[in-house]
Amino acid sequence: MFSKLPLIATAFLATLAVAIPNAPPPPPGTTNLCCSTVGTNANPVISTLAALLGVSLTDVLGNIGVGCTVLTVLGNTCSSTTVNCNSNQLGGGLINVGCVPITV
What we know:
It contains 2 helices and 5 strands. The protein is α+β, with helices and mostly antiparallel strands.
């Protein structure tokens, strides 16, 4: 029974290696996130949340992620929008700026 364990483990690791895409690593200082909302500061959901938190997004260019969780290499799945954001977080981490959509 236990003699098949190394074979099963090897098959699992080989399958896992094929399943992980060979995408280049993200730039330093960035994080892969799964965000419930991604848009610009013109998005009403984002602007309303920022106003409630007392955060000004008027000078922010590009995409903003809201309600984000960190994606790990192995495990997390994202049913919303997957983005790569720089390390700038506002509103206690609820708002992430400098986000670029990615395909996982």
